[in-house]
Amino acid sequence: MLNLTLKSIPAELHVQLKARAAANRRSLNREILALLEAQLAAPAVDVASEQERLERFVAALPHVDHTRVQRYRSSGRA
Hints:
Radius of gyration: 24 Å
Largest sheet: none
Number of helices: 4
């Protein structure tokens, strides 16, 4: 097992890590290892292709006539 030293950790980050470790009933070291393992195991996201997929999805949504919605609201139908 190798050792790694972290330096210049911001105080707020240290507080957050300690709180998270306590909530998960882990040592600070084990919590940091769990976070690193989870991050490295997470699949990489291609932001450009996800953005394109989202834009296609939004474009396929039906058009909403907001003036009609407002008219229904003001007439007490919605």
